[in-house]
Amino acid sequence: MIATLEHTSKTLLEQHHQNCLFKTILKDARELSFTFDAQGNLKGRFYCHEKYQGYNNRIHGGILAALIDESMVHCLMGYGIVGVTVTISIKYRLPVYIRKHLDIITSMSGSRMGGVFSALKSELTQDKKRVVTAEAKFYTKNELTQCIPG
């Protein structure tokens, strides 16, 4: 199962997401990596380099939001789904510090309206503390060129 999820994700990322701004920024530094676990969750690891700093010694919240969105897209693609973000709700619980690693776990949490929307959730931890949580809804019915309904 893990190999299938990773292969499907890699294939769809190459077809639909190879020029993503966030992916391009991190490409050379190899600061972000993802793998699927046996339960089908996407696990990621991110090095919180000081270049992503917002407030002193803390990672910028926009970078964290982009990490979450990137992990959710990556997770969807593992399941053979290409989608675009419709809504995302992020709760910043604790500061995320630079010069440390951040762990990300993202999972599918359901679909609605006959598969038109997929729901995902993510949790970010640093030093074994839950620092950020998020939930999002993705429009997944058609290719990216289609309009999002209503």
Query: Assembly type of the shown chains?
Result: single chain
User: According to CATH, what is the class?
Assistant: Alpha Beta
What is the correct CATH architecture?
Roll
Q: Give me the Rg, rounded.
A: 15 Å
> How many distinct helices?
3
What's the gist of this structure?
The chain is of the alpha+beta class.
How would you describe this structure to a colleague?
The protein has helices at 2-16, 21-27, 61-78; strands spanning 32-36, 42-47, 84-92, 101-112, 117-126, 129-139. The chain has a six-stranded antiparallel sheet with strand order 1-2-4-5-6-3. It is globular and about 45 Å long. Helix 1 crosses helix 3 (61-78). The chain contains three helices and six strands. It is an alpha+beta fold and 150 residues long. The protein has a single domain (2-139), classed as Thiol Ester Dehydrase, Chain A. Mean pLDDT is 86; it is low at 144-150.
Question: Could you give the topology of this structure?
Answer:
Blueprint lengths: L1 H15 L4 H7 L4 E5 L5 E6 L13 H18 L5 E9 L8 E12 L4 E10 L2 E11 L11
Antiparallel strand pairs: 1-2, 2-4, 3-6, 4-5, 5-6
Helix pairs in contact: 1-3
